Structures are given as structure tokens and as C-alpha cells.
Amino acid sequence: MTCENSAELIQEIAREFPGFRLISKRESPFSLALDRVLKLLTFGAQRAYLTHYHTVIGKTLYTPDTWASTGEVERMIVLRHERIHLRQRQRYGLPLMTFLYLVPFFSARTRLRPRATRVGGVSRNLASDSGAPGRRARALAAPA
Fold first, then answer.
1. Is residue 12 part of a domain?
2. Which of 7, 8, 126, 142 has its CA 20 to 30 A from that of 104?
3. Over the stretch 45-68, which tens digit does the pLDDT of each residue have?
């Protein structure tokens, strides 16, 4: 199914992954605790967890402060990207997915990272779940 907006895509993801939900990191005690742990482990270097990173854990997408002001195209990009992580967890299982994602070896993370297209200096899985560039992705990537 081709979704025209992020609300439709969220519904589609929820059909594929029953129980899928979005939660603001600021409203999640778990995310607030994880933010503190990351700051401690990185000696304060990781200060952007709550404000810039989208995080899927289980069937929940934890959104940063910027989600409310994020444009529709960027929301679609993020949701499609995060759906790939949901599918990886489904394929590999939670223990293996967690291990592969947290192992500090570059090659393990590279194998899990979906194919992406660079737009505006940011690597994003733009168009579809297959990684093939779509109409909106090509429009974003086109020179001005």
C-alpha cells in the first residue's frame, strides 16, 4: 500500500506490527533514564538523545523533541527507516538483533543498516522499504 501521509503510514506499520506506538522521549520514564545513562557512559558527550534521535525499542518508536515540528516528508522518511528496524528485529529476534546492534564492530552495524541515499548531507532511507528511490525522494535529491 502506498501511504500519502505519515498518519496513514503509522496505521500501516501498526497493522504489520500490532502494538506499534509512538511515544515522546520526554514523556517516557524509560527514555529519560536511558538519557541519563548515556550521558554518564559517554562522560556527557551524548547530549542529543532526547532531542535528535529516533529510537525503536520493541514495538515502540520513541520520538525526539523535534517530532512535533518535523515536516511531513521527513516523518515519512523516518517512519520507513524505523520500520526496517522493526522488520530486522522480527527476522533476527530480539536477542540477536540487540547483540548485533550493540556490538562495537563497524561491520556488524553496517550489515544491519538499510541501504540509504544521501540528501542534504544526511543519510536516509528515502523512498520505500526496498530502498529504491521514490518520487518524493527524487524530488528532494534534485538540485535546486
1. yes
2. 126
3. 889 999 989 999 889 999 999 999
Question: How confident is the model at residue 8, as a pLDDT?
Answer: 95
Which residues fall within 8 angstroms of residue 100, CB to CB, at 6 or more apart?
Answer: 92, 108, 109, 111, 112
Is 60 part of any domain? yes
Question: What gap in Å lies between CA 92 and CA 88, rounded to an integer?
Answer: 6
| Residue tagged 559517554 (cell numbers) | 42
Q: Report the distance separating Cα 89 and Cα 57, nearest Å.
A: 9
Please state the domain count of the chain: 1
Over 60: is that where the pLDDT of 1 sits?
A: yes
Helix (H, G, I), strand (E, B) or coil at 131: coil
User: Is the CB of residue 129 less than 8 Å from the CB of residue 83?
Assistant: yes
Distance separating alpha carbons of residues 34 and 133, to the nearest angstrom: 34
The answer as to whether 35 is a domain residue is: yes
Domain range enclosing 94: 6-104
Assigned C-alpha cell, 94: 530480539
